[in-house]
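Aim 2 progress. For GST C-terminal domain-containing protein, the working sequence is reproduced below.
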Amino acid sequence: TRPTTAEWSEFESKLPGKAPQTVWDTALNLPGPHPETRENCPVLYRDRNGWCPYSERVWLGLLYKGIPFDEVLVDNQGSKPRFWYDIGGGTTPAVVWPDGTFQGESLDLLVAMDDRLPADTPQLLPKDQGLRDEALRIASSLTSVLPRRCRPSSRAAFLYRGNGPVPRRDFEASLDELEELLSLHEGPFFLGGALTVADCAWVPFLERFAVQLPLLHRGLDLRDSSKRPRLAAWYDALEHQVPCYAGRVQGDASSWAAVLAVAGYGNAGSAESYQAPENLGLDLGNSVVGEQVWAAFVAGKEGLGKTPAQEAARRLYHNREAIVTDFMKNRSESFERSLVDQALRVCVTVVLADKIYPSLLEGVREEVRAVAKELASYLSKRVCVPRDMGRLPADVYRKKLSQL
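Predicted structure tokens for this construct:
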């Protein structure tokens, strides 16, 4: 008799083992002590949800450098461990460098990376003093370029003023100024052909704006190359030329739309029903280009899937107990845990499959299929990017699960 679903042990043999990096979520380990981290590695303290744009700056910089580092995830909206207040200022981001020095402030951390980390890593500041000064000026220009008197919320940074969104005309003026800054050099990045501190400083905000501004001002498409070609080229270059960005740091449109609709922490009301602009690159992970970007990102790294699909399946596999518990807790109808476990194995099977065909789930009971369909819908809505995984595997994850 054909088994209804693969056993977890079968998936284990197909998926990579645990990565050497320590990623410690303090919210799941309260009131525990500081985690064990590796010697001679920086330790990044960032927010656990991936919402803090200042944490994203430093996260991107460290990944771009390509050096090993450990992470301690802090719940900025919730309870924090005592050690977090003991070792520094109590705000994210922060880094403990290999020599034990604690440092905060995102721009200071980006600037320190070239001196603190090996010289053979990609440099974030040009050697030329004039270009170096220009990079720092652009990196520091956020509050002077963006509309004034806005709320620096991590969920909806600089989008609201008073009781409502910043007027469209104010943002149009800011975007035109950004287009001018990007036109000062050949591009596609602020200082030319390589990522610098200037780009890292702006990435988190422009990433969110590309999704969230069209929700607040219909038709305001930041990636329209006919209106702002330099800005559109900058977005494309980030996704295609900086593998660690699309591979791990970048959030996706569904997540940033959902975050915008959450009241509080600087948000004022909720956005319109979400309709993404067509050219947001929402399906990058399912493309040949996406596979190539992912391959460049994981090259030489242990513990990551070889493809975006394998990485999405790996995340499901390693978090299977929590996923089953979370799904059952949020259901009005009661299910046997073993049934939900089988349904999750069906979901992993679908995510790993090159394509969905009738015989793929042959032998799976209708009851299990029904729960798997419901679970797939739940997982697609529940996943938050980049909290749970990078944008490339998330693209595959959502598309594959939608076929259930």
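The first helix runs from residue 8 to 12. This observation will guide construct design in the next reporting period.
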